[in-house]
Amino acid sequence: MSTKAAIGILILSVGFSWVWLSARQSPSVPGPGTGIATVTGTVKVGNTVPVTQSGEWKVDVANTPTVLAAPPNFVRVGGTYTVTWAGGERELVTITALGAGAWVRAESPNQGVRWLNTALVRSVEASR
């Protein structure tokens, strides 16, 4: 065996032994090892002043406009409209009141009087 080959094998075996031994010790980061870490020293927790809520909490995103849904601008009280629901069902309704946001009070022969959210329908068509 040549001297270069023997030196190469020696370097590889030392490197392999070092990797194998370091993997057996408990590392400071996740990875192969026993999973047991010995901790020594003193642990101090800073900023131990208790915090209490004072007043009402408000969460706001600065400079963001508030967007409110509304029924289509052609929808009027007393008007009759064909509403197409998300599933494709069509219904003829008469609007009896406008509510907040996209809500309207509607009356239909099949469903009676109820509140509908026009933001949840596929389409609203004026009927005669």
Oligomer: single chain
Shape: elongated
> How many distinct helices?
1
CATH class of the domain at 80-126: Mainly Beta
Strand content: 15-25%
Architecture overview:
- A hairpin with a 3-residue loop joins strand 3 and strand 4.
- The model has no long low-confidence stretch (mean pLDDT 81).
- The relative contact order is 0.12.
- The longest helix is centred in the first third of the chain and has 22 residues, at 3-24.
- With 128 residues, this protein is of the alpha+beta class.
- Among the domains are: 1-35; 80-126, SH3 type barrels (Roll).
- The chain is built from 1 helix and 5 strands.
- The chain is elongated, with a radius of gyration of 36 Å.
- Strands 4-3-2-1-5 form a 5-stranded antiparallel beta sheet, with no helix packed on it.
SSE diagram, text form:
Blueprint: H1 3-24, E1 80-84, E2 90-98, E3 103-108, E4 112-117, E5 123-126
Antiparallel strand pairs: 1-2, 1-5, 2-3, 3-4
Short description:
This protein is α+β, with helices and mostly antiparallel strands and 128 residues long. Helices cover 17% and strands 23% of the residues. Among the domains are: 1-35; 80-126, SH3 type barrels.
Keywords:
SH3 type barrels, 1 helix, 5-stranded antiparallel sheet, 128 residues, alpha+beta
